[in-house]
Write a structure and sequence with these properties.
heterodimer; A: mainly beta; nine-stranded mixed beta sheet; 70 strands; B: 847 residues; alpha+beta; four-stranded mixed beta sheet; 29 helices; 25 strands; 36% helix; globular
Chain lengths: 881, 847
């Protein structure tokens, strides 16, 4: 299973579609600490390309906003007006060739960048719904109050509206008999709140002509197209699918006569290929179009799963929603029907891509792949990611008479499938493609690729808080530093890598700690010059293979000579998901955007600076170390500072955070290592979250800074000590004995920690040549009796005017109560004589039944004696069975 | 088809093995012969009221299968007025061939002397019964007259525990037994019982050396102290069976249950009785039939009970004694079967003449037939005003407007009621109302992460479209039961999300679509119905292959069948094969089990489904089901009018499951349109539809009607503004008003989840709460009318028509106007009148 969740994958696809014809929306990792400006709403959230448009942004901490920072840099800002602290008006110039779809955007102020939002570029003018524009006064909830939409040509009109709680927005369209009408809704793709829209077309009598809630191409968003039979007024109704919208539930309703295909056939091809694509799923049936695929598969394609978006055009009218196609370097072939039996299926040499259709319900397709015996292949399938309604299921079988199943998969790639197959002895294997619910039809298109498993690594910045954008991007205070942690996900590669960043803003430098094969993460420490301009830029992160010393690399370098500058080998890049919308259940991510670049911004100075003093001694395995952090505050600074230790080398632990006291200029940050901590030299930093008070807090409630990286050495213990268990009584002295594995070479000191109450042990000096350390423990008379397993021994070995601290768990300490004084025992009573015992008659043992019988007789006799009324039977006895 | 088999089983009719085929033919002949018994034997056809016009003899044929086999003969006479008389003691019974069988005149331990047939030698003969000048014959067949088979644990001993009451829930049948000894409840686990009697605490409970002294016997006869007291006498047949079985070695049946013929039928005679006056008696006779073709007189082995002891009490020996006027259903339980017969008691010397009923529909004919037997005269048909309010409320959940009322009253056409019904049924409100009713059965609601509000809404829309299109109900239910796929993509799959526990889902489906409450049989055989644990787990076995997986949308789930998995029987620990309730075991090795189930449920031959639906609809319009509650079909809860239920169901199926047609049949009947004013004969009748019942308007409709008459709108979360309460899609959506007035939360499939009972909190909420008062002010009808310049009298008229659907009576108007004129604030006073009307029973009830 891919490390990402299925939903992640799915929304990657969604964000991918936002590009125009074969244009990929770049975009990068987003992050923001909540100190930065925050966008509440953008109105309108879209603009027509080739025009200037005004966008009003309201939010918080927008003072001094200087730009609407489009990450791809394609949209120009021609004006900005600060209305008030919470509102900014921006005039944008959208080039005529700007790709359609989502563009990642943030607001930038001197305090930094806001969280990530998207701005849609569309080809039609955007009108704001009257109800929204009028502040909910001109309601359009009924056909009588419907807003007019005039259809003309292809894309006629786009309305930006809000579907509030229990709100149904109604738009009237006048249509002629046989007219085509299409409408697409962009809602979940537009918002930062979970807004799942639905659209209906109803006729004048209120009967639903067409409706859509979820669409196989657009997931939660909706799209309809139909031809009406009769002329008249028709009404488009837009609502949240369960009437649970809110004031932030924005939508873009695109109404026109555009085509609405769902999936292309073939659903992909090779780079540079001119592909005759048949578009499926439109109300007027399929049609063909020649599509030129991009010349090459670039890195940004790869992080978007090799998907490119094509805009189908029919009779000169472009579709409102692009359709994804898969770009692959592998040879592509089509399934050959009939292939619903393995005997008749096509044979394809791996590696290869094959596509086909499940043409009718219950249809299954088989493909035979030939590959060397024992080789390992990644088999991945695309269906839903291509806009097909299929719920793909893959199964691999041996290609022999028994057809034994090798492996299978249903949903590892979101609703699509992925598996790894090791080729059996036959030198081939069979793949069975089916729909999980045995559905089928024209649009049930599938695409599978069989490729060798190749090494790959991606890194991503983890958010400081899950399901948020907190601390996902670099915001570097002038003259200060900020640190980001990057986590690596590796496929079939365990070697060392070095992150390499390019495209930083002026005056910013970065120190990247290497990413060794044994570490899941690495640090990026950004430092801005004191005079660095306040600006933001998008940095690319490459993961270079750190094999300069490897013989192959040296040979290559020698061969290239002085002139031939061999570029370092890059094995991966940043693949940064930013979660944009969270919804039910459990705040699951509904929408995310993935980028291969990292926004880096230079922000105003920080009133606090921290310095991590490079430790003079190593941290030993099973040892501890106190890091010293110096804190410098600007004059008059008031506020709190909390230190964190963002990067922990493998096996190294640290407190989750340390608060700096208001009057302290130096604090200790304790770290420790377990017995398997990775030996080596590691770059570490201490980061701080500064929370100012007063005026500064209004614009910058929090500022993230970091120390310069310093080197931390982790090594094996200098001395090994084993402390045995010990026991003794209350009030006594107990001796713990520790044995050194080798004689001490230098003087050292040792001490016991974690002793129970009322027990004391003094520090013990260790002299060179000692092979044993003795710890006398004085046990108080009222010390707790029992076993105590928490005693620890620390061994401090001097080095560089400091101590290397080793920690050893001591053996168990047992404290006993003194044995009681034995009292004189009383004289035992003489036993009764045997004759007396024999005189007592032994009672006769009656059976249970006999006893009950006697009991019943006794009751009957008593009843007879009483000679009263008839009691009616031996009920109500207390005897129980 | 399985359904027909189920039908046969339901009626607990005899099934004969192949070897007894010839005999079954003889029995048919006997039944036919029995029909001729009404013929007088001589010329003196009695004319007196006490004269018998028909002589009935039960059982219709006698079969004696062993030397110790006996059969009681029950003789019942019917008078011309339908009253039946037990003539068993009076009649003369003669055996045709005295060598084959003999008559013992008096049963040893029965309450009444009954002719008793015992075998003498193998052969066939006839019994001739004659009494009060009438004569009748039944066949007698004797086989194995010299054989005395050993006592069987399952066939002979287990019934002793049942009849003795030993294995009742309050005694040793309790889950942990009683006083250290446990028996399976009502004997669902004979193998376990044998183990406990003979192997648990060896030597304690039975004593092979002293059979009569065995603790098992001694406890039962009260020979030793016993918490349960004396169950039967030492010289009774029951004790004799126990002792005889122990004497013979207390052996288990060879091969356990495998070779013991299964019980296939139980008949209780006479099939119906009409007793006149108090203290009239009628003996019951029960005959069990078995899979090997044998039968057995189990009159002294069954457990009798009466649904109405005040009218007809039944003794432990099966002697029925009449009491006050009324109906009773007399039941007998033997092994896994419970059967019942209806009995009617009428006062002695009643003078009754059923009125002429022109214009009856077939529904009315069937209802009247029952009323005739009860000597009840139905009420008159109600007035046009009452009809319009009632039918509008029942069909659309609204009150007729003044304009609708005027138009209806002015209409002089003879079929105007039929036209009004058709018009009301064409409205969307009719659909809304039935969507709500079905939403309760299908439990449409959101539920945590299993069913999102969107899922619930889509599910509701799916239902709405089907009801609106009048899709045949069988198709709708079939689509639901086989639904697979995403809960958004194919909304009926939400049904399987709302209950994910296989056993509870099984119970829900049985109750929702078959009207069966089979919950009891999860742990033991149903004590008052025919369902055994085998039936329960066999039915549950249709659903264990349901699986779920997460869909693309995080709120959506895909429901599908995995093709693997089973349900284990808790007694055997083995997987149970799917088996229809009371039906066949289908071959579903390769097909979807739910598909097989759905086909069976909606099969026209299915004995339960159509009846369940028609009963539901009937209960909506008449206030009470033909079976009450509408989803509690049970042997011990028979329909008050079986022929009516059967005919409604038959016609519903024949119409292609046309729901609107069914509604039309019911609403167009005079039975529905009767006045709620009772007459002298039907004043006490609450079950036979002899007059209309006064029903409190259900919560959703009442809120809508309040909004309607006050000209205000409702607002519910998750619905567009102005939506009506009956349109609420999500069962979790509610308001204080709806909760107080007993709206179903749809968490329980039971029809009892909807409370229709009036309560103090409802009255207080209407009186003091903000609903009535605020809405009156919000709608400002009175203010608008005052502005129009209407007089107090006109406004009072309008308010009364608006709330009651009738004109104000003169006395009411005069009194109200006089009161109004004494008030200073006219608007306030008029609004007070409005408020008072909204708080009156005439408004809150449908009548």
């Amino acid at each position: 299973m891919h490390p990402e969740s299925r939903f992640t994958l799915r929304f990657v696809h969604r964000s991918w579609l936002s590009g125009g014809l074969f244009l990929l929306v770049g975009a990068f990792a987003g992050q923001v600490c909540h100190a930065a400006p925050a966008i509440g709403r953008m109105l309108p959230p879209a603009g027509q390309r080739g025009t200037d448009c005004e966008v009003t942004i309201s939010g918080s901490r927008l003072d001094g906003a200087s730009e609407l920072f489009f990450e791809d840099g394609l949209i120009e800002q021609v004006g900005i007006e600060q209305v008030n602290a919470g509102t900014v008006k921006v005039t944008l110039r959208i080039p005529a060739d700007c790709p359609l779809g989502d563009h990642r955007v943030r607001v930038r102020t001197p305090a930094g960048l806001s969280e990530l939002r998207t701005f849609a570029v569309i080809s039609t003018p955007v009108r704001i719904e009257a109800e929204t524009a009028s502040g909910n006064k001109q309601r359009n909830d009924s056909p009588e109050a419907a807003e007019e939409i005039v259809l003309d040509g292809g894309l006629a009109e786009t309305v930006a509206g809000v579907a509030r709680r229990e709100d149904v927005d109604t738009f009237r369209v006048r249509l002629q008999a046989g007219d085509r009408i299409a409408a697409s809704l962009r809602a979940v793709r537009l918002n930062h709140t979970p807004f799942d829209p639905a659209v209906e077309l109803v006729d004048g009598d209120g009967f639903v002509v067409a409706s859509c809630d979820d669409h196989s191409l657009l997931q939660q968003d909706a799209m309809i197209s139909t031809r009406v039979k009769e002329a008249g007024d028709y009404f488009l109704r837009v609502r949240e699918s369960a009437y649970r919208g809110d004031d932030n539930s924005f939508y873009l309703l695109n109404v026109g006569r555009f085509p609405t295909p769902t999936v292309g056939l073939p659903p992909g091809g090779n780079p540079g290929e001119k592909l005759a694509v048949q578009w499926l799923g439109d109300a007027d049936g399929p049609w063909s179009q020649e599509v030129s695929l991009p010349e090459k598969l670039i890195r940004r394609d790869a992080i978007h799963d090799g998907m490119v978006a094509a805009v189908p055009v029919r009779d000169g009218v472009a579709a409102a929603e692009p359709v994804p196609l898969r770009l692959t370097p592998l040879p592509v072939s089509r399934e050959a029907e009939p292939n619903d039996q393995p005997e008749k299926c096509p044979t394809v040499p791996a590696a290869a891509a094959v596509w086909g259709q499940l043409q009718k319900p219950g249809d299954v397709d088989w493909v035979r792949f030939e590959a060397p015996k024992g080789s390992k292949w990644s088999v991945r399938a695309w269906g839903r990611r291509l806009g097909s309604p299929i719920d793909l299921t893959l199964n691999a079988y041996r290609d022999d008479a028994k057809r034994q199943r090798i492996t299978g998969n249903d949903d590892s790639a979101g609703p699509d499938s992925a598996m790894t197959v090791t080729v059996p002895a036959e030198g081939s294997f069979l793949v069975r493609v089916s729909d999980h619910q045995d559905r089928g039809g024209e649009a049930f298109v599938w695409w599978i690729e069989v490729a060798e498993v190749e090494p790959a690594v991606h890194v991503a910045v983890p958010p400081a808080r899950t399901k948020s954008q907190q601390r996902l991007i670099a915001q570097v205070p002038r003259g200060n530093r900020m640190a980001l942690l990057v986590n690596a996900s590796r496929t079939d590669f365990r070697g060392d890598l070095l992150p390499h960043l390019t495209g930083l803003p002026a005056g910013v430098q970065v120190t990247a700690t290497p990413l060794p094969g044994n570490s899941p993460s690495s640090l990026l420490v950004f430092e801005a010059a004191a005079d660095a301009p306040l600006a933001a830029a998008m940095a690319a992160v490459d993961l270079r293979v750190d094999d300069a010393d490897a013989p192959e690399a040296k040979a290559a370098k020698d061969q290239a000579g002085e002139a031939g500058d061999t570029p370092p080998r890059s094995l991966g890049c940043l693949r940064q998901p930013t979660e944009l919308v969270h919804g039910n259940p459990n705040r699951t991510c509904w929408r995310q955007s993935v980028s291969d670049r990292l926004p880096v911004a230079v922000v105003d100075q920080s009133p606090v600076e921290i310095e991590l003093v490079e430790p003079a001694v190593p941290l030993v395995q099973s040892g501890r170390l106190d890091l010293r952090v110096k804190v410098r505050r600007a004059e008059g600074f008031e506020g709190s500072i909390r230190l964190v230790f963002p990067f922990r080398p493998p096996g190294v632990g640290a407190a989750s955070g340390v608060n700096v006291p208001a009057d302290a200029s130096e604090v200790v940050y304790p770290i420790n290592a377990n017995s398997k901590a990775a030996v080596g030299s590691w770059g570490i930093v201490v980061a701080a979250t500064v929370s100012p008070k007063g005026d500064l807090a209004k614009t910058r409630p929090q500022i993230e800074i970091a120390s310069r990286p310093v080197s931390l050495t982790v090594r094996e213990p200098l001395l090994q000590l084993a402390v045995d268990r010990a026991a003794g009584e209350l009030g006594s002295e107990i001796l713990f004995v520790g044995k050194l594995t080798e004689a001490a070479k230098t003087p050292a000191k040792a001490m016991l920690l974690g002793l129970p109450a009322k027990c004391e042990a003094k520090e013990v000096a260790v002299s060179p040549g000692d092979e044993e350390v003795r710890f006398p423990v004085v046990v108080g008379k009222d010390a707790p009796v029992g076993k105590h397993g928490s005693v620890v021994c620390e061994l401090h070995v001097p080095q560089n005017d400091d101590w290397v601290i080793h920690k050893v768990k001591a053996g168990e300490l047992r404290i006993d109560k003194p044995l009681p004084v034995v009292a004189k025992t009383a004289k035992p009573k003489p036993k009764p004589k045997a004759a007396e015992q024999a005189a007592k008659p032994k009672p006769k043992v009656l059976s249970r039944r006999e006893r009950l019988r006697q009991q019943a007789q006794a009751i009957a006799a008593a009843a007879a004696d009483a000679s009263a009324e008839d009691s009616g039977g031996p009920e109500a006895s207390s005897a129980k069975e | 088809m399985s359904g027909s088999l189920a039908m046969r089983t339901l009626k607990a009719s005899r099934r004969t093995a192949a070897g007894a085929a010839r005999w079954s033919a003889a029995m048919v002949a006997a039944v036919l012969g029995c029909c001729l018994c009404g013929l007088p034997a001589g010329a003196e056809a009695a004319e007196s009221p006490a004269a018998i016009v028909e002589l009935r003899v039960f059982p219709p044929a006698v079969q004696l299968d062993s030397a110790r086999d006996r059969q009681r003969i029950l003789i019942q006479g019917a008078r011309a007025d339908g009253v039946t008389i037990d003539l068993s003691a009076e009649a003369k019974v003669v055996v045709g061939d005295a060598g084959v069988a003999a008559i013992d005149p008096v049963a040893v331990d029965a309450g009444r002397p009954l002719p008793f047939v015992r075998p003498l030698k193998d052969g066939e003969t006839r019994l001739t019964v004659s009494c009060r000048g009438r004569q009748c014959e039944i066949p007698v067949r004797v086989v194995d007259a010299k054989k005395n088979p050993p006592l069987s644990f399952r066939l002979d001993v287990m019934p002793v525990f049942a009849r003795g009451g030993c294995n009742m829930g309050s005694c040793h049948g309790a889950a942990r037994g009683k006083d250290g000894f446990r028996l399976s409840l009502f004997g669902f686990d004979p193998a376990g019982d044998y183990q406990r009697i003979t192997r648990e605490m060896p030597g304690r409970r039975i004593d092979l050396g002293d059979p009569a002294g065995s603790l098992l016997v001694q406890k039962a006869i009260g020979g030793v102290p016993h918490t349960g007291g004396k169950r039967f006498a030492i010289d009774s047949d029951l004790a004799g069976t126990l002792i005889g079985w122990i004497e013979a070695g207390a052996a288990d049946d060879p091969d356990g249950a495998a070779k013991v013929p299964a019980l296939t039928g139980l008949e209780l005679y006479p099939p119906e009785s009409l007793l006149e006056g108090k203290q009239a008696t009628q003996q019951l006779v029960a005959v069990a039939s078995f899979a090997d073709g044998t039968d057995r007189d189990v009159t002294d082995l069954v457990w009798y009970s009466s649904s109405n002891s005040g009218s007809a009490a039944v003794s432990e020996e099966g002697l029925v004694t009449s009491g006050r006027r009324g109906e009773a259903f007399l039941m007998a339980r033997y092994d896994t079967m419970t059967v019942g017969v209806p009995t009617v008691v009428i006062p002695a010397g009643l003078s009754f003449a059923f009125p002429e009923t022109p214009g009856n529909t077939w529904v009315d004919d069937l209802v009247d037939a029952k009323l005739k037997s009860l000597r009840i005269t139905p009420s008159e048909v109600c007035s046009d005003e009452a009809f319009l309010r009632r039918v509008t409320l029942d069909l659309t959940g609204l009150i007729p407007t003044a304009a609708e009322r005027d138009a209806f009253l002015a209409d002089q056409r003879g079929d105007k009621r039929q036209r009004a019904i058709d018009e009301l049924m064409s409205r969307k409100e009719f659909v809304d109302l039935w969507v709500m009713k079905w939403a309760e059965i299908l439990q449409i609601r959101s539920q945590g992460n299993d069913v999102s509000p969107k899922g619930a809404l889509l599910y509701h829309q799916w239902l709405d479209r089907r009801i609106a299109a009048n899709q045949p109900i069988d198709q709708m239910v079939r689509d639901l039961l086989v639904a697979s796929g995403g809960t958004f993509d194919n909304p009926p799959t939400n049904y399987f999300q709302l209950e994910r526990n296989t056993l509870k889902l099984t119970e829900n489906i049985a109750q929702a679509f078959l009207g069966m409450r089979i919950q009891c049989a999860q742990c033991h055989n149903h004590p008052f119905d025919r369902w055994t644990m085998d039936d329960y787990y066999g039915f549950a076995a249709f659903f264990p292959q349901l699986r779920r997986k997460r869909a693309e949308d995080p709120r959506e789930t895909i429901v599908y069948d995995s093709g693997g998995g089973g349900v284990k029987h808790p007694v055997s620990g083995q997987n149970v094969a799917p088996k229809f309730l009371g039906g066949d075991q289908p071959k579903v090795a390769t097909e979807n089990r739910r598909q097989a189930l759905a086909d069976w449920v909606v099969d026209p031959e299915n004995p339960f489904f159509a009846k369940r639906i028609v009963n539901l609809v009937w209960a909506h319009f008449l206030g009470r089901g033909i079976v009450h509650e509408p989803d509690d079909f049970r042997v011990s809860n028979p329909p008050v009018n079986g022929p009516l239920l059967d005919e409604l169901a038959r016609r519903f199926v024949d119409s292609g499951w046309d729901f609107r047609g069914l509604v039309r049949d019911i609403v167009a009947s005079k039975t529905y349109q009767r006045s709620c004013e009772p007459n002298a004969t039907n004043r006490l009748d609450t079950t036979n539809f002899s007059h209309a019942s006064v029903r409190r308007i259900r919560a959703e409709v009442l809120l809508d009607v309040l909004a309607q008459v006050t000209d205000t709108t409702n607002k519910f979360p998750g619905l567009p503004e102005g939506a009506r309460a009956v349109q609420v899609a999500d069962g979790r959506t509610t308001t204080y008003f709806l909760t107080t007035f007993g709206r179903a939360t749809r968490e329980d499939v039971c029809s009892c989840a909807v409370s229709m009972d009036p309560s103090l909190s409802q009255a207080l909420h209407l009186l003091n709460g903000d609903v009535a008062n605020d809405r009156i002010r919000q709608g400002n009808l009175v203010g608008r009318w005052i502005d129009e310049g209407l007089t107090d009298s006109q406004i009072v008229d309008r308010l009364i028509v608006r709330c009651y659907g009738r004109k104000a009576r003169e006395a009411e108007r005069i009194e109200l106007v006089a009161e109004l004129q004494s008030q200073d604030d006219r608007k306030q006073a008029l609004e007070d009148v409005f408020w008072a009307l909204l708080n009156s029973p005439e408004f809150i009830f449908n009548h």
